[in-house]
Specification:
The protein is built from 11 helices and 20 strands. By secondary structure, the chain is an alpha/beta fold. Helix 3 packs across helix 4, helix 6 runs parallel beside helix 7 and helix 10 runs parallel beside helix 11.
């Protein structure tokens, strides 16, 4: 036996041992939701080689949505490299689309189809969850509740994945071209409430892509982005659900590739509202252009951008996940900014929360601040997740300080690069440096 053959056998044995260890864990434990999770959508067939899957792991992506459960070779590679798969082709798929099929899911996909799919399903250590649909109408939520309960019995312990519309989906009040009601309710808030009432899943996931238009249009979409965050995060707090968010790494046809700071802002803003999973759209071609890989499976300029942003999320994740979001405040936002949310929101010039007093930006810049408490009920520790929201379009990024007082001293700060020095100013207040679109966790 030569050295190359021996090395190959050794690597195969290690991979088999790792897969066997993972296989002993139920799917819910494979998806470790105590961590801040980073995912992505879409993996085309020409991007399922060993090198491609390793590059997913190297980019800081924990899981991919849209892998066929029958593609065992790709699942084997996922297990080898420690990537999770949210699989399709197990039970009937469903997409709400433009709303023409709203309320017709039971007719198209009766319970016996789900029973047949569950009976034929074969588990694999790389499978983290089964995809059961995307962007359904609220008219189908009651049946989705039945499906979740049915699959809970047929596939015990297997997490199920369902994603909702964003708030720019059409509703009954829309006019002109939007003549079909996608949401199935008069308002988006009622759509989310209907989901919480009917679908017994312990999270809310939705996608929202703010960078789809020119500068004036971007202001409109940023306002709606905040509205969407407000509605979903409040529903998650009220119903004790986790918040999963899908931002864009891609862009519309004719629009330049999404900048690194725009990626950073989307992720950090979601964390200011308590997101526990960030799932990028898209890794491969799924919709639009300028995805992480091109149509030939080659890395685009988006790969290195996303790798840097994901690395920041991974560094701050362990500290961030020690806490849970209880509210979100808008600090320093002008009264009539076109980027302001239209939903009711808390706008303050300076923020007081727990031991933190008078928090603001040194230059008056806008901050989105998540107020957080320890997940340990025995701990009185409090935290703030601060996102610099002064330049979400990444037109003129800058650096400035977050200034605040803290009762008892001893505040700690963490960012995408790790621990950040907390400076003591002459007046006794504290200061932490931040840059546009960055996020900082303050803990005391």
């Amino acid at each position: 036996m030569n050295a190359k053959t021996a090395k190959t056998i050794c690597i195969a044995a290690i991979a088999a041992q790792a897969a066997a260890t993972c296989a002993a864990k139920p799917p819910a434990e494979r998806m470790d939701r105590s961590r801040l999770l980073v995912g992505a959508y879409c993996l085309q067939a020409n991007a399922r080689t060993d090198a491609h899957v390793k590059a997913i792991r190297d980019c800081g992506v924990d899981f991919i949505i849209g892998i066929p459960a029958t593609d065992r070779a790709t699942l084997d590679l996922f297990a080898k490299h420690g990537v999770g798969a949210i699989v399709n082709n197990v039970v009937p798929g469903w997409w709400g689309g433009n709303g023409e099929r709203a309320g017709k899911m039971r007719e198209a996909n009766p319970p016996e189809k789900y029973a047949a799919g569950a009976a034929a399903f074969k588990d694999h250590p790389a499978i983290w969850a089964v995809d059961i649909g995307d962007e359904p109408s609220a008219l189908d939520f009651p049946y989705y509740g039945d499906v979740v309960r049915q699959l809970g019995k047929a596939l015990p312990g297997m997490p199920l994945y369902l994603n909702l519309y964003p708030n720019y989906a059409s509703v009954s009040q829309n006019t002109g071209a939007q003549t079909i009601n996608q949401l199935g309710t008069p308002t988006y808030a009622e759509h989310v409430e209907a989901y919480c009432r009917s679908v017994p899943l312990d999270y809310i996931s939705y996608d929202f892509y703010p960078y789809m238009a020119d500068a004036r249009g971007t202001d409109v979409f940023l306002s709606k982005m905040y509205d969407n965050f407000i509605v979903v995060s409040e529903a998650c707090r009220r119903t004790k659900r986790s918040f999963w968010y899908i931002p864009q790494v891609n862009s519309r046809n004719g629009v330049a590739p999404t900048s690194e700071n725009r990626l950073r802002f989307q992720a950090n803003a979601a964390l200011s509202f308590g997101a526990e999973a960030v799932t990028w759209a898209c890794w491969c071609a799924g919709w639009w252009v300028n995805n992480v890989l091109d149509a030939q499976g080659r890395q685009t300029v988006q790969y290195e951008k996303l790798k840097r942003v994901n690395a920041e999320l991974k560094r701050i994740g362990p500290q961030y996940m020690r806490f849970r979001n209880v509210s979100t405040r808008f600090v320093g936002f002008p009264a009539n900014s076109p980027q302001n949310p239209r939903e009711k929101f808390d706008r303050v010039e300076k923020l007081d929360f727990g031991p933190f007093k008078g928090l603001r930006a040194s230059n008056g810049a806008r901050l989105v601040v998540g107020e957080m408490v320890s997940r340990d009920p025995a701990s009185a520790e409090r935290a703030l997740f601060v996102t610099a929201a002064d330049d979400p379009a990444d037109g003129r990024p800058q650096s400035f300080e977050i200034v605040f007082g803290v009762d008892g001293g001893g505040a700690k700060a963490f960012g995408g690069g790790g621990a950040i020095p907390v400076a003591r100013r002459a007046d006794g207040s504290c200061a932490v440096r931040i840059a546009s679109c960055q996020g900082v966790l303050l803990a005391r």
